[in-house]
Amino acid sequence: xxxxxxxxxxxxxxxxxxxxxxxxxxxxxxxxxxxxxxxxxxxxxxxxxxxxxxxxxxxxxxxxxxxxxxxxxxxxxxxxxxxxxxxxxxxxxxxxxxxxxxxxxxxxxxxxxxxxxxxxxxx
Length: 123
Hints:
Blueprint: E1 3-7, E2 10-12, E3 18-25, E4 28-39, E5 46-51, E6 57-59, E7 67-72, E8 77-82, E9 91-103, E10 106-113, E11 117-121
Parallel strand pairs: 2-11
Antiparallel strand pairs: 1-3, 3-8, 4-5, 4-9, 5-6, 7-8, 9-10, 9-11
């Protein structure tokens, strides 16, 4: 089976930086788009940034110019560099990816989510 494991959350100060990492494990054939979502208390989950297998990124307006998404295809990993943090960035951040993998020797595809990592921005 495939798993996405996130790391790097924690407490950041306003104006500071944090870097999130997410790595996929399993017998993976390919990974299409990789995304970061976030969900703040009492709010719906929202797309923060996404990146294609070719490296093209897109961002929510609220994070443009502050956050950078990147990926390492050799490591099946995606990263989110968060700079100029604001208190409103406080949320649980989730990694998401569309992955083609082998299950019982059969190639299948699925949409996977990480377990989430808490990011809190506060002085």
